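TA notes. Do not distribute before section.
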Amino acid sequence: MDVIQPVMVGAHVIFAIAMIAIVLLQKGKGAGLSGVFGAGGAASESFFGGRGPGTFLAKLTTAAAIMFMVTSLILAKLSAMPRGGRSIMEDKKTKAAEKARPKPTKPARKAPATPK
């Protein structure tokens, strides 16, 4: 349990950086919108977006996003799991309770019963 969390955090950071890099490498899809306003090409094609099959970078972005979400869910689950050991606050509470509790005193010794 102690080893898996740092490994998952590392993978999470790698997927985040990869996703950022992949998205920045892609050509913007807003460039097709200029064709609608008379920059050339058929208006209907540009408006409805003549999308062909997804590019390699688009598929890679999808894969990186899915892995990022999976590692996010795993890290959330790991952080919710109880840890072995006690917290510092619990330790302080028990020490404070011990100080507040009165110490037991020894009962007074009874005198032996005298026969009558």
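Switch to the second chain here.
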Amino acid sequence: MTNPELNHDAPVAADDRRTEPRFEANGMVVLRVEKVSIPGRLLDVSEHGMRVEHMYAALASSMVLEVERDGVRRTARVIWNRIKNEGVESGFYLL
């Protein structure tokens, strides 16, 4: 299934240890931690993961949460967080 919001021709620079290719993506997601809903912006995706920009600095590595995009919910584990001037970036592994 092809998603028009994914740019499969533009892999993201390999500046980390991931073994799967990442592809730029754009779109809104909702991170759900217990009863808290956190809006976020999808930055890139791979077969088993994604990188999301958001404003919720309380996420911690190893947390398990739900990610909702276009009405579809997936369970994910927080792998890393990076605090930036404009918010937080987190990497997720989809379970």
